[in-house]
Amino acid sequence: MNRNPDSSASASYPGSRSSAGHQAPEDQSERHMRGLANLARVDGHGGAEVLAAVEAVSPDLARYLVEFAFGDVYARPGLSLRDREIAALTALAAQSAWPQFKVHVRAALRAGLTRNEIIELVIQAAVYCGFPTALNALFATGDVFAAMEEE
Amino acid sequence: MNRNPDSSASASYPGSRSSAGHQAPEDQSERHMRGLANLARVDGHGGAEVLAAVEAVSPDLARYLVEFAFGDVYARPGLSLRDREIAALTALAAQSAWPQFKVHVRAALRAGLTRNEIIELVIQAAVYCGFPTALNALFATGDVFAAMEEE
Amino acid sequence: MNRNPDSSASASYPGSRSSAGHQAPEDQSERHMRGLANLARVDGHGGAEVLAAVEAVSPDLARYLVEFAFGDVYARPGLSLRDREIAALTALAAQSAWPQFKVHVRAALRAGLTRNEIIELVIQAAVYCGFPTALNALFATGDVFAAMEEE
Amino acid sequence: MNRNPDSSASASYPGSRSSAGHQAPEDQSERHMRGLANLARVDGHGGAEVLAAVEAVSPDLARYLVEFAFGDVYARPGLSLRDREIAALTALAAQSAWPQFKVHVRAALRAGLTRNEIIELVIQAAVYCGFPTALNALFATGDVFAAMEEE
Amino acid sequence: MNRNPDSSASASYPGSRSSAGHQAPEDQSERHMRGLANLARVDGHGGAEVLAAVEAVSPDLARYLVEFAFGDVYARPGLSLRDREIAALTALAAQSAWPQFKVHVRAALRAGLTRNEIIELVIQAAVYCGFPTALNALFATGDVFAAMEEE
Amino acid sequence: MNRNPDSSASASYPGSRSSAGHQAPEDQSERHMRGLANLARVDGHGGAEVLAAVEAVSPDLARYLVEFAFGDVYARPGLSLRDREIAALTALAAQSAWPQFKVHVRAALRAGLTRNEIIELVIQAAVYCGFPTALNALFATGDVFAAMEEE
């Protein structure tokens, strides 16, 4: 039985590395370009705003966000963007990271989740994280929906 | 603009309640039966084991698990079971709830996630929760895959 | 020795279920009515405000809050409301859920805890959760006391 | 309106300090003796075991546990020991600190909470912290009850 | 091999207690004076502000902050103040305790950490706690740096 | 006033990128080699063991650990390895990530922290994270010291 489930997926894209050690070389600028593209695809205009805010204090942390989070992880083909945003919203709610949660409510809508599905994720958080977390996630979600009405 | 996104979904199943206050009455045994059915559908044999372990200490907490978590929330049609398990695994990893995480690795596979997709969720946890959480989630995942080989 | 400590308490109220499987049927509206009554008893005017805020985004999550949290759990006779609010304040501080913590400072006072006892809980949080959490809980408590002076 | 709720309670025991700055001097050995006495009163034999385990690695951390946690905070008269253990169990469950949670299940019983009341606190944790935390707290509680049967 | 690593350090300052049980007596006012001195040394003007805010609601919690946190722990010679602030910033970021994190950005600068070193700690938090925590820590850091520009 | 504190440090090593956008290209194998070297330097034999355990389930997560955590972040010159391990231990204790905490007790000793300094960090965790976390960190530390005696 194959116990390395991602080896099949890992061979097929730039920067991947099979379990046997073969590595496809690429330079940093490819990772950076891919990262910027994914950041725009995922977060739209909001992503550029976050990046600018991070760069203002630490250009290097901004670079890691672009290259590792978006150039490496979000670029991986083994999970759809829609699935990734389900996980992102849940992780952010579980950690009460409300600024990022709000950014990802918008990213989730861009990725194809409906408003109703986002609410369903919040309702499920009541079971997995408790009602306080779920309520705060719901209020953050409502804030984003309301702001979108104003735009 | 409609700001009650779940009102359309809420009218269509037993126990739902529209925003106007209309409520479909049902007694506890319907919720209970639906919950037991969902528990079996989601967690398979593992769910019955967890339920027995909970009942041994608190029959009432077991009942709430069946009726609220599985009879109410997991029964909701607005989010697929596969999507629910993506969220479940992520919430459990974020809280380091490893016993439940392991149960839900199996539930996720039953719900249609592949082993590779589960690994992808763990990799994404490195971005959202940090490498320590991701590593512990990965080890728990590997433990389940190994145990499944033995079965 | 009896290892099901709540079986004796569980037989005595609507919706309870003994360990032998006997279940007292009730329909959803009883749970809902009981929940609304408990929400008012526990949170007073603040509870209605929270409920309205939740309903504005998700009528179903509001219903679960009323029916499960207040209709089922808060209705249980095995623990006094005063004891429940000691636990509620502590759980909310431990999770840094400050909006809900503030609502429950008022609920705790309604339940019979004195202002001094609430402060004692916050002081004890310095031991169990650390000084940062205790300080933030203290500031939230002070905010509520100050707001009450204005009313 | 008096906004220093603990000033009245603070004047009445050794080491207290009123808001006006008057301080009742005591030396370290009084705090230490009081702490050891409270540790025995609260945790019984289990407390001595924990203290020995801590002293084996850090005599100073053991001293702070005795003097600050038990000599100062647990000695405060403004909250009963039973109330303190309700808060302790909840804080420990919220943080998934299972070794300490198990010690405090025994402390809670010594403080006058019944087994059923402890189970009620765990059930309420399902609302405030989510079902995963509540289940893990329930299993820890069941482990302690089972161990007590063996003694 | 000596398994009590702090016994050598513990004998050398007031209030210390060797593993053999010998204890140097001191009264509360020495701990209090030492605590106030350390609070000023560590947090400067910000510390006095925090203390006043705490005293306004609980003079006793303020006293414990001064006497235990600063009079006992921060006074210990076994770790430099600079090292303590590295740990303080990290613990506060990990718990998302942003008000205290901001106070300690200033304390860290006073303790000899450079702005760049504080940013490095935040970047490392992306690895250990995830990017959401790191971003929120970065924004809090940037807020403090900006406020310092205004002073 | 320069508000980009890491720009000066960022220009001086491979892969860095100044705030003006200039980027020094390197391919993946340089990051990978640097990461393996740092992993060995930081974690010694324990690091190779962890890496192998991660690779057994996800070669890609292992690669990110090596390349991002150790090749990028740990390679940064702006903070010493000793300082990094102070932060690592604290972050791991704050998250109760005990397997990784134990690995980093050894890494901290390799980085120049003494056993006594590690104990001091644990004692300080009692202030910042509460006594439960500090006790669990202390027991984990004691376990590592004891295991080292056996080697």
TrEMBL record, chains A, B, C, D, E, F:
Which parts of this chain are annotated as the region Disordered?
1-31
Look up the coiled coil feature and give its residue ranges. Answer: none
Supply the Pfam families for this chain: CMD
What InterPro entries does this protein's entry cite?
A: 4CMD/NDH-1_regulator (IPR052512), AhpD-like (IPR029032), CMD-like (IPR003779)
Highest rank taxon of the organism: Bacteria
Q: Where is the composition biased (Low complexity)?
A: 7-20
Sequence ranges assigned to domain Carboxymuconolactone decarboxylase-like in this UniProt record: 59-141
Q: A Gene Ontology molecular-function term?
A: peroxiredoxin activity
Record-linked PANTHER family: 4-CARBOXYMUCONOLACTONE DECARBOXYLASE FAMILY PROTEIN, GAMMA-CARBOXYMUCONOLACTONE DECARBOXYLASE
- Recorded protein name is Carboxymuconolactone decarboxylase family protein
Q: Which organism is it from?
A: Oceanidesulfovibrio indonesiensis
Q: What is the lineage of its organism?
A: Bacteria, Pseudomonadati, Thermodesulfobacteriota, Desulfovibrionia, Desulfovibrionales
